[in-house]
Amino acid sequence: MSRALNRVAGGDGTKEERAVPKASFRSYYGRPVLKQPVWEWLVPAYLFAGGLSAACAELAAGADLTRRPRLRKVTRVGALGGLGASMYFLIADLGRPERFHHMLRVAKPSSPMSVGTWILVAYGPGVGVSAVAELMPKRLRRTMLGKLVGKLARPAGLSSAAVAPGVASYTAVLLSHTAVPAWNEARDWLPFVFTGSAAASGGGFGMVCAPVEEAGPARRLAAAGAVTELVTSRQLDERLGVVSEAYRTGRAHRLRQWSEYLTAGGALGSLLAGRSRGVAVASGLALLAGSALQRLGIFEAGVESTRDPKYVVVPQRQRVDRGNPAGAESAQ
């Protein structure tokens, strides 16, 4: 019997040789089991910008209710800027602008893309009205239209804040409903990672752009979001079985490791930035960079997991062994 065969413990404590060699996961003609995603950097940029916009909308609503006008202004404008960037990246990835319009023809609750499209439709107008109220020149604010926009700014901001959690998390559901193993197997954790990452980036944006004396809510949101991101992101390295290797190796690992360093540093800085403008700006930039690298790292892990057949075959076999063959079929 070949020496390449594995040895296992026998009933009497001795070593016995296996009857079959350890399985190797090779696909037909060496080709991947799944097609590699054709998405480029536009997709992680879209994920980051949308999460940033949602967190800024939440901060803006809180700043409005607690009478922090400068924090309210920068976060309302940040919410609009993030939404605009997110829509640009999405439409650029779709290839033709009319494809986004076509998704509005139907509402399909079973499709994360359809639900996400309608979430953006519900979110966008409130963000736009509240930002316009902040950017409107003083001479226009005295007109009838200006006064109307001013009156609508608060309810519009609150309505967008109510939808913002969906904006921050629906992209995680969108990814996890694909056949990509690193995303599909992480479906229980990705929404928490994305929401925490969004909160950290929004808090970081507020720390960078708002004066220190008004940025208290931004610092608290940044710290809470960073802790949530760090804790739940670690689960991707430990709770996904063999698929966790896609997160712990290669370019995805390096990107996420740097994200962890920056996010942890930014969270620490948010606790120390109560009086220092320089610390606040540096910490906020670290949180923004950490959030962006987290999305890019998760994207890279997904791409890598489509290249090795074991990330598809092993989880399917494990589901069959647990008596859940339907689960194996659903991941295909």
From TrEMBL:
<feature type="transmembrane region" description="Helical">
    <location>
        <begin position="77"/>
        <end position="95"/>
    </location>
</feature>
<dbReference type="InterPro" id="IPR005614">
    <property type="entry name" value="NrfD-like"/>
</dbReference>
<dbReference type="InterPro" id="IPR052049">
    <property type="entry name" value="Electron_transfer_protein"/>
</dbReference>
<comment type="similarity">
    <text>Belongs to the NrfD family.</text>
</comment>
<feature type="transmembrane region" description="Helical">
    <location>
        <begin position="189"/>
        <end position="210"/>
    </location>
</feature>
<dbReference type="GO" id="GO:0005886">
    <property type="term" value="C:plasma membrane"/>
</dbReference>
<keyword id="KW-1003">Cell membrane</keyword>
<keyword id="KW-0812">Transmembrane</keyword>
<dbReference type="Pfam" id="PF03916">
    <property type="entry name" value="NrfD"/>
</dbReference>
<protein>
    <submittedName>
        <fullName>Formate-dependent nitrite reductase membrane component NrfD</fullName>
    </submittedName>
</protein>
<feature type="transmembrane region" description="Helical">
    <location>
        <begin position="115"/>
        <end position="135"/>
    </location>
</feature>
<keyword id="KW-1133">Transmembrane helix</keyword>
<feature type="transmembrane region" description="Helical">
    <location>
        <begin position="156"/>
        <end position="177"/>
    </location>
</feature>
<keyword id="KW-0472">Membrane</keyword>
